[in-house]
Amino acid sequence: MRGGRPDRPPVFCQLSLGHYFLNTRIPPHRIWFASESFAEALVALQRRYGFDGILINLPGRPEELLQDIQSVEVSGRGERVCWRDGSTTVFPEDDNPWHETAEGRPLRRADWSALDPDGPLDLGDCSGYWWNTYHVARLPAGVGVPFLLEPPDSFLRTIRSVRAQTRGEVSIHGEVFSPFTHFMELFGYETALLALAEDASRAQAWLERLTASAASWAVAQARAGVDAVLISSAFAGGGFISRDYYARFVLPHERALARAVKSAGAPVYTHTCGRIADRLDLMAETGIDGLDTLDPPPLGNVDLGEAKRTVGRRLFLKGNMNPVALLAATEPEQVAAEARRCLEQAATGGGYILSTACSVAPRLEPWKLEMLVPLAEAFARGR
């Protein structure tokens, strides 16, 4: 995980937030809104499963954030957090939360027709963008720079806490959303996708501006000591855009982002869900060090063995275990067969991390994840 030659294939799955909610005793709102509580959850499940890495996929929070909570209502279905400004955050027991205004309205996105990518930026109340990219409905007090060109120090609190608890025992990874994801979340999915076809030059101008904010947050994590940075690029697969549009609207901006992370001294890899078999070569051209998820059919269309042959010499590969098949499995041998399939197709010669494709489902039984490290050890002994 740090560039040496491991004695077995590394094992490191990305856990969904719902999985943390269900499998720790920490209240969901504290996992989401309190840095030290999230760090505690991250480390607890890493140790339980023996994973070789931890992905920190929520920014740190200001220490005083929980003081803005007026009440927390707990039921058998989850939590409802009521804030002093009248807004609410609802936490299902097994899924990501959603946030509503005091009037019960959905959160606001930016107005495509009103904002000039080359002019002064005043987003006003763009809570939908902040929630979906930084997972808070408003910025911390005192942060006035649009798009977080100067990430607040509080964003690094979880990284510091995890590093203090693990003391170099595991690989710690940060996460940043790709410029294309920022674009989708800023204007909303329908508006953003139509803009690619109807106003491509303006879309490119926005993507260039958003690359700067993504790079700023990524570089801050690299300088804070993470061992790698994950670019989360969930909307860049074939279910959203074509190979041609990927080359035009994703590749150049993720290349710039990857270059910024590497200049800060950290490896960088990309997480893209769904159908990406037709663009693995283009993803490699972004200059990243590895690829994550590699969804197999029917979730995606990546044949792991083929990916190993085509891009596996340039990039490390992580994922491809079918998370839905694992969720449906009832016998240990079913889990073992799925893990062995991936190990046999990609682990020989190194450069493969055993992992589920995309996140572990919230209700995946822990015993299935507890099997993975022993399976990787058995594979190494049998080589």
Could you please describe the fold and organization of this structure?
The structure is a single chain. This protein is of the alpha/beta class. It has a single domain (17-63, 130-382), classed as TIM Barrel, CATH 3.20.20. Helix content is 41%, strand content 14%. The chain has 16 helices and eleven strands. It has helices spanning 17-23, 28-33, 35-49, 127-134, 157-166, 179-187, 189-198, 200-223, 243-249, 251-263, 280-284, 304-310, 323-328, 332-346, 366-370, 372-382; strands at 53-56, 69-75, 78-83, 88-92, 98-100, 171-177, 228-232, 268-272, 290-293, 316-319, 352-353. The strands form two sheets. Strands 1-6-7-8-9-10-11 form a seven-stranded parallel beta sheet. It has a four-stranded antiparallel beta sheet with strand order 2-3-4-5, with no helix packed on it. α3 (35-49) packs parallel to α5 and α4 runs antiparallel to α6 (179-187). The radius of gyration is 20 Å and the shape is globular. The mean pLDDT is 94.
